[in-house]
Structures are given as structure tokens and as C-alpha cells.
Design brief:
The complex is a heterodimer of chains A (473) and B (171). By secondary structure, chain A is an alpha+beta fold. Classes of the chains: A alpha+beta (473), B alpha+beta (171).
Chain lengths: 473, 171
């Protein structure tokens, strides 16, 4: 009798397991979703400088969009969903590594750029990078030095079908989407997306679906943000936290032997008198210059991959990277078809929102210039961010666009048909002269104006009031 | 002894049944990927087969209209006369229209179109038949019928169907 009862319980357990597993497999309800996973929250109030970042972690999308059969959302690298964000990113990189490394068993199909519309209508995640990565460089950063499929020149975005596990590489200059299909492409993105959907994410729309003439294909806005707010932040410069001597010690072995000058603006300059110097300004800009690089033999051969390695290692060992840093642009200069110099820029985000500093000479907070395979110049203006406890409501992005149109049409006398909105996104902007400096949420609108180059560029608008705080001139 | 054996048979049958039914539900759910059209009051709306099959609870309504146009978006849910029916409304591949039910207003949202000439609103819909009515203050309007299949509800229904009818008693 006892054995019979035991058998019945075992059978009952099997039925329950079958229900759980079939639910998970066929209806996209994750086991993690059924048995809620606990997550250790990381305190993000203090900015952690890291000096052990590997270069692959600097490939991050500017936008991570989740499409779910017509509904879509923007996933930010926030504390609450940080684990999910990282997992999607890691899975995407693993799948790309498989594509780059393997040729056998992978089917490639080249499609037109308008195939993106179909991908967006299905169940996919889109990773839009801040600039078009060179294909070989992208693979190299992921650790694959001789990738397959070298007909691909650039990677603007990567799309992953989370039901099919197909990988799509978007090359906008080539107007192509490269579709990769293989049984060896596996990921847990579907499970991650299921967890995102359980959190009732904000709905977003692409404005080019409505008006492709006036809005680019990455203008992606939330439809409803009445209940959404962002904390006002305060920030401290690295020069407020560290003494000039401490900062100089990152660049010179023996700071005691250095000569130092303080100019009337309070900028401290350290130099060894022959090769290197560091300027530390009161506003927080730290600039290192190696005077000797230009006079070196320009026959030294180096690649863009070498430059990324040199720059990343240099920043790692010279004050480190802020949390959530990523490569935001790469500018190359060639002399006689040979790479002569390049500037690698890095950006960082707070809770998934990029930080815009008030230093007009630096669009990006970290910049490294490599000449002849050596660091010539290194500039940074990195802030330690804290929450103030004050929240700011956000104006609907459509209202923000309206305010901008009024400014351009009424004050600058521009025809509305000549205006193209290239992008709109939230950021934090340093605002005011106090110490610590305030950081307020802003909408950044990137505009292209036909026949009026001095009005096109980046407009920074207070996210709460819509007041234009900065515009091109 | 006989009772225990019959429980085991029922449970084994349930296991096979769940696997078959959930697979079928999945196929049904995956097919629902028709795009929701843009409600364009300037150039006209693209024609779509209605009802549009959809499997998200939230629905983004987007459209285009001239500056200053007031837009009203209303969502209705069709209450069937014979109660809620999600899975078994198709019989022998023939769709039986329930004409005795009624449309219930669920929510109304208003907005004014600015210089961007774009409006966008998110609405929630209920499992079953829904109707979205987008109207302008100058009398133009578009209607769209949407059939929302809630995968979660299907899972629950499957569970209910199996376990409600089983009188599970273990000695």
C-alpha cells in the first residue's frame, strides 16, 4: 500500500514537472519567471572606478530595443534589470563570436535594409551601437582576430531573433542586413525577455513608422511617460576628491621630482621637463600629454585594434574607467594609406542614462589619442555621481519635439520640411556653478537641417520644462 | 487499489494531453504577428484584415494628423453572450460569430497633435475581441478590431481543465 502511494506521488510530480517544462518551452514562461529569482542589489550611489575592464566590455549598445510582436520597449542598464541586460549582451556577444569563428553549418543570407521592418514586427532584440564599428575591429575586440564573412564592412547594429536564435548584422552604409542561421546559435534571451515583460515595461514607438521623411529609423520614444520621473543628481569632479599630487602620481613614478606650475585660473601643471606633462584644471578636466610622440619615427606600423588595446590599457592603469563605460567613437587619420593616429572616445552612463558634461571642449568624458602606436594625449572629465533625493518629472518627447520645431520655425525661420530629427534620448547634464554640481535630466535631440548647417546638431532641453539649455551656433 | 490505478491512468493521460495542447497553443500564439496600422488622418490608413490577431496586453496606438487636431482614442471590449471563451471558439475550423454579445467601453484617452504631426498612446486591452476607435474633432474616425489571445490565460485554462475535473485524492 505504501509503495502504491509512493508511486502515485512520483507520478503526480512528473505531471507537475511536465506542465512546468511545457509551459516554459512552448509558452515562453521562464522557469526563472515561475520561481522568482532573487537578485543582490548593487549600491550604485557611489561611482566605482574599475581598472580591470577587458576590452570586450566596452562594446555596448547605445540603445537596446526589445520587440515583442508589435510591442516594443527600450531596456536601460539599470540596477533593477542589470542582470538581464548583461545576460542579453553576453549572449549576443557569444552568438556573434560563433558567427565570426565558424563557417560550417552556418547559413548566410543577405537582405535589404528594409527587412528591418519585418524584424521589428517579430520577436527580436536590437542592439544599436553608438557608431558603425569596423567589422574586423568588432570581431577583434571580441577576441577573434581572423573572422569569417569578411564581405561585411561595418556593424551599425545587431538584431537577434529570440525564438529562432537567428543573428542579423546591420551594415547601413552597404544598405544590407546579413542573416545568420545555425543550430549552433543558442541563447537564453527568450527567457530574459520573458522576465522583462513580466515587469510591465514602458511601451515605445518608432517615429519613422509614422513619418519616415522627418524622423530617422532610430527615433524611438515612449508613448506614455506621465508617471515616470528621474532623480536629480549631484556630482563631484575627480579633482574635488583627489589632490593634484595624487592625480599626478598616476602618470609619474616619482611625483616629487616634477616641476609644477599653478596658472591664474587655478590649473595645476606638472611636467618632468622633457617628455610628459599633466594639466589638472579646477573644473575637473585632467589632461596628460606626451610631447615626444610626434618626433618619433613614423614608420612604426600599428592597427586600429592595437590602438584600442593601447587606449584601454592606458585608461585602465591611469585612473580607470567609470561604471558602465563604453567606446562611443573612433576617429582615424591615415597618412600614405597608413594609420597615423586615432582618437578613441569613451562614454559612461548612470543607471543606463548617459552623462553629458558641461566641458564644451569635450563631447565625451574620456578621450585617448594614439599617434604612431603611443599615447600622445589623454583627457578625462569624469564625475562621481550621487542621488539628491529630488525627482524630476519628464515631459513627453512629442512635446519636446514640438518646442524644438517652434524654435526652429519661428525664431530661426527654417522650413519644417527641411528638418530631420536624427535621434532623441534622455541624458543627465551638469548644470550650474555650485559644488557639488547639479545634474538634471535632459532630452537630447539631434537635428539635421537642409541648407542650414549652423542650426543642425545637438539640442539639449530640460526634460521637465522643455527649456532649450544648449543649441548649435 | 482500483482507485489508485485509475488515478495513475488519469495523470498519465493528463501529462500527454498538456504537452499536446500547449504545443498547439504555442503555434496559435506565434501566428499572431500582424502589425497594427498607423492611424494616418493625412494620407489615409493602410487596409488590414480584421480582426487583427495580437498577443500583448498593451497596445501602442500611433498616428498622424494635422497640427491642432484633437484626437480621442476609445477602447471597447466585446462581452460575449455566453461568457468568456478563449480557446474553444473555433469548432471544425469554422468561426462562430457571437452576435448577441455587447461592446463595453473600457477606456478613453485624449490628446492634441502638435507641430510634430504625430500622436502616440498606449492602451490596455482585454482577452477576446477589442475595438479601437480613433476619432478627430472634425468628425473623421477609424475603427480597428483586435483579437487578443492571452497566452497566460490559455495556460491557466489548460491547468483548470485538467485539475478541476480531477478529483485528486491520495490515500
Amino acid at each position: 500500500m505504501k509503495l502504491e502511494r509512493f508511486k502515485s506521488i512520483v507520478l503526480f510530480c512528473l505531471v507537475v514537472i511536465s506542465i512546468v517544462l511545457t509551459t516554459q518551452i512552448w509558452l515562453n514562461i521562464s522557469i526563472e519567471g515561475i520561481f522568482i529569482m532573487s537578485e543582490n542589489k548593487v549600491d550604485k550611489t557611489s561611482e566605482l572606478l574599475s581598472s580591470d575592464n577587458d576590452k570586450a566590455s566596452f562594446i555596448k549598445p547605445e540603445k537596446l530595443i526589445v520587440n515583442n510582436n508589435g510591442e516594443r520597449t527600450l531596456l536601460l542598464n539599470e540596477t533593477e534589470v542589470g542582470m538581464i541586460y548583461d545576460r542579453i549582451l553576453d549572449d549576443a556577444k557569444d552568438m556573434l563570436s560563433v558567427v565570426f569563428e565558424t563557417k560550417e553549418g552556418i547559413e548566410l543570407e543577405k537582405r535589404q535594409l528594409d527587412y528591418m521592418e519585418k524584424l521589428r514586427a517579430g520577436r527580436t532584440v536590437e542592439l544599436h551601437f553608438p557608431f558603425a564599428f569596423d567589422y574586423r575591429l568588432f570581431a577583434g575586440i571580441l577576441g577573434i582576430n581572423n573572422p569569417n564573412w569578411q564581405e561585411i564592412k561595418n556593424i551599425d547594429a545587431v538584431v537577434i531573433g529570440y525564438d529562432s536564435n537567428n543573428v542579423y548584422i546591420v551594415d547601413k552604409a552597404d544598405k544590407s542586413i546579413y542573416q545568420f542561421k545555425s543550430k549552433s546559435l543558442k541563447s537564453s534571451i527568450r527567457v530574459m525577455v520573458d522576465m522583462i515583460n513580466r515587469g510591465k515595461p514602458y511601451s515605445y514607438i518608432f517615429l519613422n513608422d509614422v513619418d519616415p521623411e522627418r524622423y530617422s529609423d532610430v527615433v524611438f520614444i515612449p508613448t506614455d511617460i506621465e508617471d515616470r520621473s528621474m532623480p536629480k543628481l549631484s556630482s563631484y569632479a575627480e579633482t574635488d576628491i583627489n589632490t593634484s599630487e595624487d592625480i599626478a602620481s598616476y602618470f609619474f613614478k616619482d611625483p616629487a621630482t616634477l616641476r609644477s606650475i599653478v596658472d591664474p585660473a587655478g590649473t595645476v601643471i606638472y611636467t618632468d621637463g622633457e617628455k610628459q606633462g599633466v594639466r589638472i584644471s579646477k573644473s575637473g578636466v585632467i589632461e596628460y600629454v606626451n610631447y615626444s610622440t610626434q618626433s618619433r619615427n613614423d614608420k612604426i606600423s600599428f592597427t586600429i585594434m592595437d590602438a584600442v588595446n593601447i587606449a584601454t590599457n592606458f585608461v585602465n592603469t591611469h585612473m580607470g574607467f567609470p561604471k558602465d563605460s563604453y567606446i562611443s567613437s573612433i576617429e582615424q587619420t591615415f597618412i600614405n594609406n597608413k594609420l597615423y593616429s586615432c582618437i578613441i572616445r569613451y562614454n559612461y552612463r548612470y543607471e543606463g542614462i548617459p552623462i553629458v558634461n558641461d566641458e564644451v571642449s569635450m563631447d565625451n568624458p574620456i578621450e585617448v589619442e594614439i599617434v604612431n602606436g603611443e599615447v600622445k594625449r589623454y583627457r578625462r572629465v569624469v564625475k562621481t555621481v550621487k542621488i539628491t533625493g529630488q525627482d524630476k518629472t519628464l515631459k513627453n518627447p512629442l512635446e519636446i519635439i514640438d518646442i524644438l520645431f517652434i524654435r526652429l520655425i519661428n525664431d530661426k525661420k527654417i522650413d519644417i520640411d527641411d528638418i530631420m530629427i536624427k535621434d532623441i534620448y534622455l541624458s543627465y547634464l551638469e548644470y550650474g556653478m555650485s559644488n557639488p554640481t547639479s545634474m538634471i535630466p535632459v532630452w537630447i535631440v539631434e537635428v539635421q537641417v537642409e541648407g542650414s548647417s549652423n542650426t543642425e546638431g545637438r539640442y539639449i532641453m530640460n526634460a521637465e520644462s522643455g527649456v532649450i539649455l544648449s543649441e548649435p551656433y | 487499489m482500483l482507485r489508485s490505478k485509475s488515478i495513475k491512468i488519469i495523470l498519465a493521460f493528463a501529462m500527454v494531453f498538456v504537452m499536446m495542447l500547449s504545443s498547439a497553443a504555442s503555434i496559435h500564439a506565434r501566428r499572431l504577428d500582424n502589425p497594427i496600422p498607423v492611424f494616418d488622418f493625412i494620407n489615409g490608413i493602410e487596409e488590414v484584415d480584421q480582426p487583427v490577431k495580437y498577443n500583448n496586453k498593451e497596445l501602442s496606438i500611433k498616428g498622424k494628423a494635422l497640427e491642432g487636431t484633437n484626437i480621442t482614442i476609445s477602447t471597447y471590449w466585446y462581452k460575449p453572450s455566453n461568457g468568456e471563451s478563449i480557446i474553444f471558439k473555433y469548432k471544425d475550423n469554422v468561426y462562430y460569430e457571437d452576435t448577441d454579445g455587447e461592446w463595453l467601453l473600457q477606456h478613453t484617452d485624449e490628446c492634441q497633435v502638435g507641430l510634430s504631426r504625430i500622436f502616440g498612446v498606449s492602451v490596455n486591452i482585454k482577452p477576446g475581441k477589442n475595438k479601437i476607435v480613433v476619432e478627430t474633432d472634425n468628425g473623421e474616425s477609424y475603427e480597428l478590431e483586435i483579437e487578443y489571445v492571452d497566452k497566460q490565460k490559455i495556460t491557466e485554462k489548460i491547468g483548470d481543465l485538467i485539475f478541476d475535473r480531477l478529483n485528486l485524492e491520495f490515500k
